[in-house]
Amino acid sequence: MLATIASATLLGVEGRPVSVEVHVSAGLPGFTVVGLPDAACREARDRVRAALLSSGLGWPQRRVTVNLAPSGLRKNGAGLDLAVAVGVLAAQGELPGDAVSATGRLADLVAALRGEAPWPEPAAEPAVPARLVDPDLADVRGQPFARLALEVAAAGRHHLLLVGPPGAGKTMLARRLPGLLPDLEAAEALEVTKVHSAAGLPLPADGLVRRPPLRAPHHGASAVSLIGGGTAWMRPGEISLATAGVRECS
Q: How many CA atoms lie within 13 Å of 141's alpha carbon, on the beta-carbon side?
């Protein structure tokens, strides 16, 4: 039998749809994953088998072929494991092919798909937290020209260069610039959140960065930390992390 499960994978910071096609046929027992999977994705066989057996479900003693379509898109990580597990069960006839929903555990998902248990209630949407109070420009005394420059830069989204000796208040002023900026538009908030998520930075309680970020890299920061890069995992640099926000250079 053939089962097709709709899923998705990440390519950089963009989500891409993936169809997990599972075919169970007669032949020597085996498990093959095709469709440009990486090493972690190919290891789904052992993870899925262990999950099914530990959930009290069976593993087919037949030939299993998993195709990740489109075949030209590289797939990485373990994010497709659940889709593979459901596809294996559906291809064996263990699950109906027209049920779609989500749960927190594989055993709960199988019981709900079989009609043996009700679908769990979805978790409530997290409340949007109150806006964090940014450092206020009203705290600054004096510096009338610098204050005006900050207001003009914030109003027109202009670049700003602050020059002066140490202790003159450049950092204090720069860190109050985000407080003059409005909340991010929906598209900007989504873009900034994707970049911060790819960098492994903590996200707000509701999962969406809504305020313009402030990044203040050290003056001795390397080119890689500023521009981005890495070895096995490409990380965004400070320039990318300051998207739609403020980057302070000392």
A: 0
Q: What is the pLDDT of residues 59-84, one digit of tens each?
A: 888 999 999 999 888 888 888 998 89
Distances from the Cα of 191 to the Cα of 14, 16, 103, 213, 243, angstroms: 10, 15, 28, 12, 8
The type of residue at 29 is P
- Residue 39 in 3-state DSSP? helix
Distances (CA, A) of 201 to 118, 193, 204, 247: 37, 9, 10, 16
CA angle 44, 76, 43 (to 5 degrees): 20
Q: Measure the CA–CA gap between 181 and 135, rounded to whole angstroms.
A: 12
Q: What is the 8-class DSSP label of residue 185?
A: P
pLDDT of residue 63: 92
- Would you state the pLDDT for residue 79? 86
